[in-house]
Write a sequence for this structure.
């Protein structure tokens, strides 16, 4: 039987937010148990009993696996078709992460549609069973390194060494059968960390069919006869009520959809009553994105776009602040668990600029809020606002004051309440040029998308400080960290200087958007003078160096804003030479980040490729798709991996993969400019 499979290192199934995130780390849905992105097993299984013989179509189990005949991953859906015993079973997971509908996007609900039909011309008796384990509701690990630590529940490394007491029930409501399960003890927003799963809230399964809460799982069933013309269908809504999502500077806030009192049942009912409309919207979005991706970069770029969509959005939680404004908080998955990190938001924004720039402002608001507090005494932008799910002030680069510990499970204290005299941060752990440039570029890009400059107007004193920092220190940065901090401190970083140049130009656009044309021209002039100096000192002829000490080389991904925003900082001839120089430096799985190592960042490759001509673009994109098809590292699309082996170095399921949409944003904005 012929097979048509979209191969990814891990297949997205339920990807709503950093906690409600279930994947199958295999080529097929029957090749591995389903897990959280961080690797904890969170079993979801599906079986089909065909004429008395049990077969498995989802997850791990004793029953033999059905043969997978097709598997398709689109931006919003993962669909698998399997066959056994003369019957074909199709299962689809669809999550309507519709950026133009924030209420829907923020509802932690996924459609699960299962259908069975005969394919051999015969009639068959079929029983379908879908099972979602209550393990989705608790964290079952011991931290940190020692797996045998079991002393007491007061051990800071201890979370849960055995399955906790659970409750479950089922009932009928709003025309649906509803079942739920969760911990008997609810410590809402009760921990913090990185590779860690939720330990509170309730898992729901709802639908019009047979649904029950049994033992340690929620179960949906259907049975009946099938023929070629008569199918057996199950339609479920799987949802997670986290009750409270984020500690936002001392306010325990629910998800965006619940800001006015809506409940998880309201969300499920919305998905039910608007089912046809929402699934049609998903199908239309999938078709639009895949069509544009194929036109831009062929099948390679289509696969990348499909792999990145739910991945990038699902690494965030959307809430409302005290004013009812959107706050969109990322989690640094498999990095350090920080929340709202600026240099994680920065690479992610192309996807959000394409569809709804308010999400980008939602990334900026918490940083602007914290930077305005007394404890932040610096004339540059912060790095983050806490560790997920606690947005309580920057935790990166804290001094050791005896109250801060990075042990996963522990919660950092309310840093935002500290006075300006506390001196809680270590300057060496900051990223001054990086974050100032990021914030100015993010704000300017959001306003370029829709013409709204109200957020910048509110915080102009901060932006004035940040642009001054870039002018004073960005032309030739000292030994500082940049977003690629995993590579360590680097003095005279040419790519970091490029961000400063573009950041000053972004500030000029902001001033122009606020009606100050004189300031716009003044700061554009400063940026162009910086760019001229930058090129003279960075150029090695046909490429640019890694540092102003004229050593090495690196991707100059930060210069993408020159072409994207039409800044006219450098001539087109520079971009042609620079991007073509990358081709000879590629390895099997892509272009290394720079000359220091053969590892890379996939988001930066796509940013760099966006500045190239079509042939160079496709040549740079192809190895990234090759990584997706061949990597032996069974993790959700890692953005940091080795270009020689295709093995991931670290970073799983991070929001930065929204940056893989930079080519489509470039097409849109440069097309509009023409």
């Amino acid at each position: 039987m012929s097979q048509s499979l979209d191969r990814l290192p891990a297949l997205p199934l339920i990807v709503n937010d950093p906690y409600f995130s279930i994947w199958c780390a295999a080529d097929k849905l029957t090749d591995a148990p389903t897990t959280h992105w961080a690797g904890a097993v969170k079993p979801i299984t599906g079986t089909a009993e065909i004429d008395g013989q049990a077969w498995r179509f989802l997850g791990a189990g004793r029953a033999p696996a059905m043969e997978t005949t097709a598997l398709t991953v689109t931006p919003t859906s993962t669909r698998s078709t399997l066959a056994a015993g003369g019957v074909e079973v199709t299962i689809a997971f669809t999550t309507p992460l519709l950026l133009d509908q924030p209420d829907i996007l923020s509802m932690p609900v996924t459609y699960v549609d299962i259908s069975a039909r005969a394919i051999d011309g015969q009639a068959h008796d079929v029983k379908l069973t879908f099972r979602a384990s209550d393990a989705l509701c608790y964290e079952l690990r011991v931290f940190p390194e020692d797996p045998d630590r079991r002393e007491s529940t007061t051990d800071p490394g201890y979370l849960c060494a055995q399955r906790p007491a659970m409750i479950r029930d089922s009932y009928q409501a709003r025309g649906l059968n509803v079942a739920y399960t969760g911990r008997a003890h609810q410590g809402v927003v009760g921990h913090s960390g990185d590779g860690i799963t939720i330990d509170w809230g309730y898992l729901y399964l709802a639908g019009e069919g047979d649904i029950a809460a049994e033992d340690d799982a929620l179960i949906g069933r259907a049975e009946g006869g099938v023929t070629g013309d008569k199918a057996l269908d199950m339609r479920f809504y799987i949802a997670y009520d986290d009750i409270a999502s984020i500690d936002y500077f001392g306010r325990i806030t629910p998800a965006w959809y619940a800001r006015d009192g809506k409940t998880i049942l309201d969300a499920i009912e919305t998905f039910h009553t608007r089912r046809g409309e929402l699934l049609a919207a998903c199908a239309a979005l999938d078709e639009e994105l895949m069509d544009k991706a194929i036109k831009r970069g062929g099948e390679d770029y289509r696969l990348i776009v499909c792999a990145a969509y739910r991945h990038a959005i699902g690494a965030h939680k959307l809430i409302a602040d005290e004013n009812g404004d959107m706050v969109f908080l990322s989690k640094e998955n498999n990095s350090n668990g920080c929340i709202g990190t600026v240099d994680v938001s920065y690479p992610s924004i192309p996807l959000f600029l394409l569809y709804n720039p308010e999400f980008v402002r939602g990334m900026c608001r918490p940083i602007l809020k914290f930077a305005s507090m007394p404890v932040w005494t610096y004339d540059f932008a912060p790095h983050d606002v806490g560790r997920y799910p606690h947005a309580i002030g920057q935790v990166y680069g804290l001094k050791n004051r005896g109250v801060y510990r990075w042990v996963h499970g522990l919660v950092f204290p309310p840093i935002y309440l500290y006075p300006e005299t506390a001196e809680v941060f270590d300057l060496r752990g900051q990223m001054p040029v990086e974050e100032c440039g990021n914030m100015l570029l993010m704000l300017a890009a959001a306003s370029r998308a829709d013409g709204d400059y109200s957020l910048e107007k509110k915080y102009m004193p901060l932006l004035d400080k940040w642009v001054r920092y870039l002018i004073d220190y960005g032309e030739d940065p000292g030994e500082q960290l940049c977003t690629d901090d995993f590579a360590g401190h680097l003095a005279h970083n040419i790519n970091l200087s490029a961000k400063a140049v573009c950041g000053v130009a972004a500030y000029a656009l902001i001033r122009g958007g606020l009606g100050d044309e004189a300031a716009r021209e003044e700061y554009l002039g400063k940026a162009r003078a910086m760019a001229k100096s930058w090129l003279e000192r960075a150029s090695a002829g046909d490429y640019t160096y890694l540092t102003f000490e004229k050593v090495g080389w690196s991707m100059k991904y930060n210069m993408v804003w020159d072409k994207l925003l039409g800044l006219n900082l450098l001539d087109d001839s520079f971009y042609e030479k620079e991007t073509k120089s990358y081709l000879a430096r590629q390895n099997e799985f892509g272009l290394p980040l720079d000359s220091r190592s053969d590892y890379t960042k996939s988001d930066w490759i796509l940013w760099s490729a966006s500045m190239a001509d079509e042939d160079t673009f496709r040549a740079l994109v192809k190895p990234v798709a090759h990584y997706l098809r061949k990597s032996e590292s069974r993790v959700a699309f890692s953005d940091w991996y080795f270009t020689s082996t295709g093995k991931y170095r670290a970073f799983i399921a991070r929001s930065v993969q929204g940056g893989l949409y930079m080519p489509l944003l470039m097409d849109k904005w440069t097309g509009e400019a023409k």
